Amino acid sequence: MAPLYKYQLTFIGTPSSQWEMIKQSFYKHIEELGMPLDMIVFLDEKNFNSEYKPNTPMYCLYFGDPGSNFKNTDILTKLINDASLILPITDDLTRFKQTIPKELETIDGFELSSDEKIEALVGVIMEGLGLLRNTRRIFISYKRDESSKVAIQLFEALEKNGFDVFLDTHSVRQGEPFQEELWHRMADTDIVVLLNTPGFLKSEWTTKELAKANAMMIGILQLIWPTHKQEREAELSIPFQLRDTDFGNNHFTDSNSHLTNTVIEKIVEQAESLRARSLAARQDNIVTEFVSAAKKTGVPVTLHPEKIITATKPGGQNYVMIPTVGVPQAFRYNQAEEVVKKIATINNPQVYLVYDHINIRNKWLEHLDWLDKHLPIKTIKIFDAEQWLKKP
Description:
Strand content: 15-25%
Structural class: alpha/beta
Largest sheet: 5 strands, parallel
């Protein structure tokens, strides 16, 4: 089963000898993370029209031209309309407007004045695509008496491939309220790997895990045991039908059953693919809900290529809204500060992280309320967006 969705890195504009060096550095970081290299697709003017997938994580580097001879403007327009992440590249920021198309003037560019800056650029790309290790989260849902050994196998394999994996027996600290922590971690996950054994939905808790994952629009990779069928309740997931030969000694009937290394590798690949799609879909959902709320209240908003929303209330106050998938944490606050620096056209904005609070632990929500009182960057629940927009 080939991966359906991959991470896309696009090079357009004036060709540069540095493109290949950027690709090699990017590959090095992907290997260090443990990801398969075939999860990355490089696009340019030659293969863009045939291989580009709009609803998949995308990062575009637009290389400016010193003579203002701007190339690939058709591709650039397409990516802007798709709200893709676009980073203008120039060798001299003092001549930024002369070297970059007008459509990108409001986005702060990256000065690639020497090869020594390539590593820093690749770090920006990794962050933009959500490929830093502390942002890659997976939740394993399973029935202990039927698949505990397989769950541990997947936990170890996914950790090795650069994921932060939640497995109940390994990830809940002693003394924490188990069920509350479980839902909290699911709210902060990118995808769920569901081990669909014959008795999976006979358990109250596993049934609830599946229902909550669907309700939160979290992608589900459903591993279906041999002789078992995909459950109707999980039709929104991607099915992965296991065969008896995928198990050691063809044994798959109890908690000691284990998968072969070959199928484990295929599952990790599918998990990576599903994460790419799920992450983009959940962020898009927050953006869509906020823009819809703004239209209802008559507050003008602008959706930027980085999927950042700017708004100006009738009183004249400017706002920058940053859609946040999962739980707002310190890393995301730091990202927010960097994003605001790039939006040079907005004067003295108030900055908000917009997130979905469903199933996040009360103690963490209280912590966010405390941070709102002490930090310049605030948070807002997407379900409160319409009410917030109506306030003066």
